[in-house]
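So, can you check what follows?
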Amino acid sequence: MNQHRALQRRKFVAAALGSAVLGSAWGSTYPDKPIKIVLPVSPGSAIDATARRLAPVLEGPLGQPLVIDNRPGSAGLIATSQLVRSPADGYTLAIVASTHCITPHLYKASFHPVQDVQPVVALTSGPMIFVVHASVPAKDIQQFVSYARSRPEKESVPMGNSGNGTPLHIASALMSLKAGFTALHVPYKGIGAFSTDLAGGQVLAGFLPLVAAAALIKAGQIRALGISTLKRLPALPDVPTLAESGIPDFEVDGWLALIAPKGTPLAIVQRLNGEFNNALRTPELERFVADSGGAVIGGTAKDCESLFQRDFAGYGRLIAEAGIKAD
């Protein structure tokens, strides 16, 4: 653990030093006007909240305001398509979620999520919590798997998610595939509608981020049985991971990352990478991310590109194996 933290710290220091060196060359020319950050979601979402926390922290070091431009729709394709068509001058950026590497496998996209964008920096990661309605007779993952297997196929356990192709959908599909049970996947238009129906028992299980699950768990309406990543959540230390609960190697992570148009000058990419790394390590951002149940990632632009390559290939295999469709 200490070695991992030391490695992460070295990555942040390297990124910050690169920013300082390049700043002397670009400081007088970039940026000299506001920078637009395109988001694939509506105001009020987790991505939107993160972007709006980052923006004021970065305005001082960059010397220009960051303007948030919400472009929801088509599972993120509208926002990313706009980013891809924008000039590669560093004045139009986008924050994308892990759906960036999922959606092109399910919908016809006008861009390749790795080859047609410039990854800048991975921002945060966010585990998901596997939860069940309070009426479900299961206190742990193995009891839930037994319960799901015992139901007739025509009465498969209904598992909700926030929409087709979202990390919540992928996590449910992967769980049912690995654990060997049949589920009825019920897509909703957003986490709000899904969590409301889960609390009311219209669906019986699914994955939620901590920010959406915490109040419902506290109220006793739902029960937390497992964590989607390989580490437990500090906020729920008694809830085991799915991997340690009998579903080996289970890992689905909901990350956020900053991208720029392909062809953005390297010096600008490295300047942005360094400044965003510095912003992520401010106490207020670290506290905000931790309170949301997530963790800061950071690192180099190459690290971000490697994340995209890994997840685009991995999600592609999973979607094909599980037979996941857009509709």
About this structure: Residues 2-26 form the longest helix (25 residues). Confidence is low (pLDDT under 50) at residues 1-7, 18-27.
